[in-house]
TrEMBL record:
Name this polypeptide is given: 23S rRNA (Guanosine2251-2'-O)-methyltransferase
First-tier enzyme category under EC: transferase
Biased composition (Basic residues): 15-24
SMART domains: SpoU_sub_bind
One MF annotation (Gene Ontology) recorded for this entry: RNA methyltransferase activity
Keywords carried by this UniProt record: Methyltransferase, Transferase
Swiss-Prot/TrEMBL GO biological process terms: methylation; RNA processing
Residue intervals of the RNA 2-O ribose methyltransferase substrate binding domain: 42-114
InterPro entries, alphabetized: Alpha/beta_knot_MTases (IPR029028), Ribosomal_eL30-like_sf (IPR029064), rRNA_MeTrfase_TrmH (IPR004441), SpoU_MeTrfase (IPR001537), SpoU_subst-bd (IPR013123), tRNA_m1G_MTases_N (IPR029026)
SUPFAM superfamilies per the UniProt record, alphabetical: alpha/beta knot, L30e-like
An example Gene Ontology CC term for this record: cytosol
Length: 276
């Protein structure tokens, strides 16, 4: 779904039950590398690829697929969209070892940059998730999935301490990479200052905090700040939080995976007004 054919795709419709179709081609290019062409990102898996194909902000380069996987996609591809049909084993050579491609591999351009100012000008009732040195793409992808589920405004990371956009991250995000804005900043502390200036109450999750998340919660705009597992937030980032809070977990468990903690915190923000 290249940029020039976005309008055709939308006009063609993506009604349920309609399978995506395109021109068949020979399987070629990228064998054995698991890497995309220069300047591109290679995505795999049903939800990740389908969401990317439906995203009008994506520039698509090439789709490799099994016929069965194409038939299971929702929507229609434009008539000039090239598909290279292949066997599942051949697709496995296009992605990382043992990656669950589910019969679909898409090569596309990385998403355009998103700026914090644009997020701060949006709906203040939607929380912002700030990640400090969370580098595992599985965790970042899972957090994006929760962010999409609980209508978060954006994910904010520091460019030097976050994973790149990738197939692993997109697969873990299960399509959320295409719908949750991902803001990558140079200075995370400065970004937190800008959030405060915009009226956001910045809550850092820390296991050693005295207050629970419900006690630290604000009725206004909220930014949830989470650090890497083990190390937690850096001191400078902690200093830029308005409150530190912990999740009230059992003493039998020392901590939660950062993606699980993010999901619980996002649920707490989503239900704070109802008292659930």
């Amino acid at each position: 779904m290249s940029r020039h054919s976005d309008d055709d795709t939308q006009q063609g419709g993506r009604g349920k039950g309609k399978a995506m179709r395109g021109r068949a081609g020979r399987m070629q290019g990228g064998r054995g590398s698991g890497r995309a062409s220069k300047g591109a990102v290679r995505l795999w898996g049903h939800h990740a690829v389908e969401a990317a194909l439906k995203n009008p902000d994506r520039r698509h380069r090439k789709l490799w697929a099994t016929r069965e996987a194409i038939a299971n996609l929702d929507g229609e591809l434009p008539a000039d969209f090239t598909i290279e049909y292949a066997q599942a084993a051949d697709l496995g050579r296009l992605v990382a070892r043992d990656a669950p491609h589910q019969g679909l591999v898409l090569e596309c351009d990385a998403l355009e940059d998103v700026f914090l100012d644009d997020v701060l000008d949006g709906d203040p009732s939607r929380p912002i998730v700030v990640l400090d040195q969370v580098t595992d793409p599985h965790n970042v992808g899972a957090i994006m999935r929760s962010a999409a589920a609980f209508n978060a405004a954006a994910i904010v990371t520091q460019d030097r301490h976050a994973p790149p956009e990738s197939g692993v991250l997109a697969k873990s995000a299960s399509g959320a990479l295409e719908v949750v804005p991902w803001v990558r900043v140079v200075n995370l502390a400065r970004a937190l200052e800008e959030m405060a200036e915009a009226g956001y109450w910045r809550i850092g999750l820390a296991g050693e905090a005295k207050a629970t998340l419900s006690q630290a919660m604000s009725a206004g705009p909220v930014a949830l700040v989470l650090g890497a597992e083990g190390e937690g937030m850096r001191h400078n980032i902690t200093q830029h939080c308005d409150a530190l809070a912990r999740l009230p977990i059992s003493e039998a468990m020392e901590s939660l995976n950062v993606s699980n903690a993010a999901a619980i915190a996002l649920y707490a923000v989503a239900t704070r007004e109802s008292g659930e």
